[in-house]
Design a protein that fits this description.
Structural class of chain B: alpha+beta
Distance between the termini of chain B: 48 Å
Number of domains of chain A: 1
Order of helices and strands of chain A: HHHH
CATH topology of the largest domain in chain B: Butyryl-CoA Dehydrogenase, subunit A, domain 3
CATH topology of chain A: Non-ribosomal Peptide Synthetase Peptidyl Carrier Protein, Chain A
Strand content of chain A: under 5%
CATH superfamily of the largest domain in chain B: Butyryl-CoA Dehydrogenase, subunit A, domain 3
Radius of gyration of chain A: 12 Å
Number of domains of chain B: 3
CATH superfamily of chain A: ACP-like
Largest interface: A-B, 23 and 25 residues
CATH class of the largest domain in chain B: Mainly Alpha
Strand order of the largest sheet of chain B: 2-3-7-6
Shape of chain A: globular
Distance between the termini of chain A: 22 Å
Helix content of chain A: 55-70%
Number of strands of chain A: 0
Number of helices of chain A: 4
Oligomer: heterodimer
Helix content of chain B: 40-55%
Shape of chain B: globular
CATH architecture of chain A: Orthogonal Bundle
Order of helices and strands of chain B: HHHHHEEEEEEEHHHHHHH
Radius of gyration of chain B: 21 Å
Chain lengths: ~80, ~400
Amino acid sequence: MNTTIRELLAKFGKLPVAIETVGDDADLYAVGLTSFASVQLMLGIEDAFDIEFPDNLLNRKSFASISAIAKTVDMIQDARKVA
Amino acid sequence: MNFPVKITEDSFAARAARVVAIAAKYADTVDFEGRFPQEAVDAMKAERLLSIQIPRNLGGESATTTEIAELCSMLGQACAASAMVFAMHHIKLSSLVEHGADSVWHADFMRRIAADQLLIGSATTEGGIGGNLRNSICAVHVEDGVCRLEKDATVISYGAHADAILITSRAHADAAPSDQVLTSFLKDQYTLERTHVWNTLGMRGTCSDGFLFKGEAPAQQILPKPFAEIAAQSMLASSHLLWSGVWYGIAIDAFSRAQAFVRAAARKSPGAPPPGALRLAEVSNLLQMVKSNVVAGLKAYEDAKANPDKLSSMGFAVAMNNVKIASSETILEIVNHTMLICGIMGYKNGTPFSLGRHLRDAHSAQLMISNDRILGNTSSMLLVHKQDTSLLG
């Protein structure tokens, strides 16, 4: 999953640094993810994983790092399996 | 300078009322001369209103944002510039109160603010960032426990009159523009070289000149939290809510003048409804919308305060953006209506119905963080945020 997220970050994240230099736990906002780019990234992730982010997960924490995004996506997919 | 403690036995409103009387007396002079409302700010200090937000254990009175918004509105009815200085000070203070209590230096700073009634200024604007305060060009340099910062601050709220300035910058020389920190500098830790003069249409008394800021201070004065979090969790809400309090004050005072005008006309010709009466009813309707909007916003903030996730959620940001857009746009409509009601008596300066200052001050509301920028920000969030469809939720 992290590979897909990295691809999406490279496409939508508009980061000022190369995606390869960003660790899985690096703070994406500190690396330069703007709020507008983060919305584009969210849309891209919704599309790629065929999910919709519920409002309670639309906050900074859910998108703070690559692993945080993966965790958020996992959580939504798990919830769907249960339902 | 130490201020007597005994007056704090009075309620906030009673203390603010004494400041209002002084602010009202000098409002026209402050506006005309474009000078700082020193008398009103001295009165705020004498009434110890600059520290009410600080927690009791640090020498303050633990006032809520809602209580402070009410005082902003009271002051706004008398002198919008004084009210805005008070609001800006408390917006800066909210960053310290919400994010600085765990830092020894910042806790001590709050004690000093309370003891000496220090006025805190704000320097978030910088030449070249295009008005986006979530970006910085300048960077703070830390070496051997000392931080140094130089910033081309095109606007510093009441810069020359502040006792300390909270200033944004990039976190270090290699940081991205959005990787920012907020540093407190005390007056004897910085120099200001004036680069722009605040000669404006309205809000003239805030004296928010532009300066080249050069500061040097111990590095622990950098707030140990990313500014992005501070902005989302305390600054966004407190700015939009306290500004809206000031703006409501401008609008309700304009309404009161128009109402007095209509009542005088009604008394002069009993039986015939005065021409402005219907319009006054319209203004009353608009005022109620602004008030409901601000009160609902305050409630949302007080409810979310204990929950950092909720505070940094999109739903909350959209709600706060909407409060700001609605109050800043509607007060212009309100003041314009009251001008139509009062006619030439409202247009002229120096009458009991004069509204020129109100109109000019009100025009700042749409520009203090441009409404176009805010709408752009909301529109991008609405691409993923789903609106709550319940009436009460």
